[in-house]
Amino acid sequence: MKLAMIGLGKMGANMTSRLLRGGNNVVAFDLNEEAIQKAESEGAEGARTLSEVTEKLSAPRVVWVMVPAGKITESVIDELGELLSDGDTIIDGGNTMYKDDIRRAATLAEKGINYVDVGTSGGVWGLAEGYSMMIGGTTEAVSRLSPIFETLAPAADLGWGHVGPVGAGHFVKMIHNGIEYGMMQAYAEGFEIMHAKKDFGLDLHQVAEIWRHGSVVRSWLLDLTANALEDDQDLSDIAGYVSDSGEGRWTVFEAVDLDVPAPVITLSLQRRFSSRQDESYAAKVLSAMRNQFGGHAVKKAE
């Protein structure tokens, strides 16, 4: 199958490579010329504008958008909406808010353009391991694109699926990432407790390796934790600042809207916020209150 990949960041570039290795023809576009040239060196057909992208595809055209969620995705899809025509398909594989998918799909449908949302997990390891894909769209559109998903997935019949109408793919991926927040936080807290227990002189890399085999807490996240702890279990070169890309927040908002309790995911998100504070004003207020009502000592700022 021939398709275009818009966005050649780490994930987009790796997906392009996997598609090419699977025998697909790919038109590659990015604002970074070096990224285009690298894709061309692997066998992709490069394009320098979105107009050129569409010209190099034959109808019905398929364009996979793999750019940061938000304004950039909105801009790219708007422009593609003017360039594509009846029967063509836009796939959004980024971390889009599912409500935006539903809105965009309705607008594009007026022009006869199909819209498919693909929640994609796998990160930089996807090139070798394959990608997990949660797909939203019409049955007809998804069925026609199945050769692409079979190539990108860990196996033709594993790791991907049509989960529902437009928006469902990114909704499921949003919840997936919320769960990921909770799992990561639990691992982080457990390893912090062991790191603080100096009496036993624990080798945290050894512990992670033990848990990786046979334990009920084994997982790919634990595998990655073991990798990170191998050379320096103090992680001295890493700042304790944790970003979030939005899906955890959206999961919490959705839980509130649906009256579903989600304390673990919510607290995991809040802990990420805490990691970004050099100093907590809330902690100062707590200390001041303890001093006021009980005369407890206050540690003075240096």
Could you describe the 3D structure shown?
The chain is α/β, with parallel strands linked by helices and 302 residues long. It is built from 14 helices and 8 strands. The chain has an 8-stranded mixed β-sheet, sandwiched between helices. 32% of the residues are buried. The model has no long low-confidence stretch (mean pLDDT 95).
Shape: globular
Strand order of the main beta sheet, please? 3-2-1-4-5-6-7-8
Largest sheet: 8 strands, mixed
Q: Quaternary arrangement of the chains shown? A: single chain
Spans of at least 5 consecutive residues with low confidence: none
Radius of gyration: 23 Å
Q: Which structural class do the helices and strands define?
A: alpha/beta
Task: Figure out the total of helices.
Answer: 14
- Roughly what is the average pLDDT, rounded to an integer? 95
- Approximate helicity band: 40-55%
Percentage of residues in DSSP E strands = 5-15%
Distance between the termini: 64 Å
Topology diagram in text:
Blueprint: E1 2-6, H1 10-21, E2 25-29, H2 33-41, E3 45-47, H3 50-55, E4 62-65, H4 71-83, E5 89-92, H5 98-109, E6 114-121, H6 126-129, E7 132-136, H7 139-144, H8 146-152, E8 160-164, H9 168-196, H10 204-211, H11 220-229, H12 247-257, H13 263-274, H14 281-294
Parallel strand pairs: 1-2, 1-4, 2-3, 4-5, 5-6, 7-8
Antiparallel strand pairs: 6-7
